[in-house]
Task: structure prediction
Amino acid sequence: MAPMIEVKNVSRRFGGFVAVNDCSLTVEKGSITGLIGPNGAGKSTLFNMVAGNLAPSSGTILLDGQPIGGLKPHELFARGLLRTFQIAHEFSRLTVLENLMMVPDGQPGENLLDAWFRGRKVREFEARVREKAEEVVDFLQIGHVKNELAGNLSGGQKKLVELGRTMMVDAKVVLLDEIAAGVNRTLLNDLAGNIERLNRERGYTFFVIEHDMDLIGRLCDPVIVMAAGSVMMTGTLADIQADQRVVDAYFGGSPTGHATNLPGATA
Ligand SMILES: Nc1ncnc2c1ncn2[C@@H]1O[C@H](COP(=O)(O)OP(=O)(O)O)[C@@H](O)[C@H]1O
Ligand SMILES: [Mg+2]
Result:
């Protein structure tokens, strides 16, 4: 396998505080790679740098072999690196299909609305985008809610729509930051099944931050453990659960304390 994402000696400081500290890791093409670690470990900061939302203080990040330093999120989006976003407030009054149809069509600035104002070939363009959106709801098996307003969906259904938005363009790699939070078990199962199918059938690579160890165990290999801004270990979830350093990192030096997100606590 070749690397899809390579993070090389990346650091990020906030004032005098080092949130990500000389961090190096690889996400292989075709993998579903997990990223876990105690709160404050630097996981979201690392994701923000990979997604172009935050500049590294130092170090290099490569996407499919190309350096991505200085690229904006929409430029990375056009190169196939996507992260899911919560459905924005103003989209809650659009239907599921309409939400999918609003996703930019690969080129910066081009979306259904721009095409509408351009006034030419509007019908063909809309038909093409609508057809794609219908295909996405079929794949995700959410056809029964496609005409519902997004604001009326359950938390888990919203996550499926967020995942669906990544399918409107040709994604190579999708970043997921804590998608399981607040999602009921049934929908979590649907979500996990769809992630597996996108990986196996469409070749998506996933890079997943998650606290839910059941989900990590089902989906992710390898799993990367971050602590205090750096990678502590990489391995299968079983390797990680057997490692005393990881247990210590989660307990934060207090073996009698309760760590709800300890790997294995829910397994
Ligand atoms: N914009 C910011 N300004 C200052 N400190 C920040 C900022 N973003 C994150 N941090 C700090 O960096 C550390 C890592 O945060 P984060 O990346 O969110 O960790 P995680 O996602 O692993 O819980 C935390 O101590 C957090 O308070
Ligand atoms: Mg976080």
Q: What stands out?
A: The pocket of adenosine-5'-diphosphate (ligand 1) is lined by residues 14, 17, 19, 37, 39-45 (CB under 6 Å).
